[in-house]
Amino acid sequence: MNVRSLESRADVRGIIRAHGLAWRNAYDGLLPAEVLQARSVDPSDDEIDKWVERLRENSDGVLVAVDTSDTVRGFADVRWGSSATKAFVGPNEGELKAIYVAPDRWGRGIGTALLEAGIEALPDSIERLRLEVLADNDVGKRFYEARGFEKTDTSSYDLGGDSYPTRVYTLEI
To answer: Hey, how many other C-beta atoms are within 10 angstroms of the C-beta on 150?
Structure first.
């Protein structure tokens, strides 16, 4: 498995697929089924265009994990700067906006490799990395805690007109 920067529309297609599959698996029972099924795993050209625009805003912090055939199996999106991060991220802090791995690749160290590469992608001025995880996402919380993150705050995530409690985690880097 190789972790590298986002390079192409094919990478974006792979990101969307890994994202959709991971959401459907990781959040089953935590989010409504219709929300999960709405996550694309076979994106149209229009969907890819929308993601390209969103990811272009922060292309330096978007990383993909690819296998030997250059197929995207996971991705991470790290951000910094007040216009690119959520309100719980302060000065000299970055945000791990997303990290998802295709479920058939879980447990192989891909998420850890993406996290480590994401930390390396941050500017030297960043002292802490923060993230938000659904409060009931025990798998996610265990992943972050095992890698040194500590729960430092609470927040909420709004989706489809509903609000879900979250936990904010922080890693000193």
So the answer is: 11
